[in-house]
Amino acid sequence: MVAILTGDIINSRKATSTEEWLSVLKEGLGSKENWEIFRGDSFQLKTEVEEAFLKAVYLKACIKTLKNIDVRIAIGIGREGYTAEKLSESNGEAFIFSGEKFELLKKEKVSLSVKSAFADFDYEFNIALKLALIAIDKWTPAAAEMVKLALENQGASQSELAELINKTQSSVSEALSRANFFEILELNSLYKKKIKDTFTANEPASD
């Protein structure tokens, strides 16, 4: 099982230059062998199923550090199937689900959604995502920068985060609270639990 994130940049033409958001996107995508950028401002990323939600949130934080720019992401969860040298030429359940959901994002007027072989999981978690987006869509560049920092330094205390950016612990705490960061971490815990309960329980028994 893998997760495939298919996405594109919202309002990419409002950027000062393509390089402005492209360098931020590449940094957020991480290790080069797991992603591909195509059609100018679209991309695909392969990641572990358990890490997919938080990775999508991290990409949101990265892109939203830039004013008036956002990213639209569809998470497809399933079997990988055929693996090619280029990610865009690979195929399988996860790729199909991701592509199908991505095509619906504009119609559904959401910028983050998930699709798998399990309709109940999709329905329940996509409702949770819509609620999470109420907070995420309101992130200012400063709030997004703080979320990005916290996700890049998971396990660090608020005091340690404050030292990294030369701010007070209270200002870091307030910024993360305003961004609903702690609720998003709770949602990530729920996501991982539902993944385990849904997908692990339905994996075929090994011979």
Summarize the structure in short.
This protein is of the alpha+beta class and 207 residues long. Helix content is 53%, strand content 15%.
Give me the secondary-structure topology.
Blueprint: E1 2-10, H1 18-29, E2 35-38, E3 42-47, H2 52-64, E4 70-78, H3 93-108, E5 112-115, H4 119-136, H5 141-152, H6 158-165, H7 169-178, H8 181-200
Parallel strand pairs: 4-5
Antiparallel strand pairs: 1-3, 1-4, 2-3
Helix pairs in contact: 1-2, 2-5, 4-8, 5-7, 6-7
Describe this structure in words.
Helix content is 53%, strand content 15%. The mean pLDDT is 91. Strand 2 and strand 3 (42-47) form a beta hairpin. The chain is built from eight helices and five strands; from the N terminus they run βαββαβαβααααα. It starts with a strand and ends in a 7-residue tail after the last helix. Helix 2 crosses helix 5 and helix 5 (141-152) crosses helix 7 (169-178). With 207 residues, the protein is an alpha+beta fold. It has a five-stranded mixed sheet.
Descriptive labels:
single chain; 207 residues; alpha+beta; 5-stranded mixed β-sheet; globular
Q: How helical, in percent, are the residues?
A: 40-55%
Inertia-based shape: globular
Unreliable residue runs:
none
Helical run tally: 8
Q: Report the end-to-end length measured between terminal Cα atoms.
A: 18 Å
> Largest sheet, order of strands side by side?
2-3-1-4-5
Strand content: 15-25%
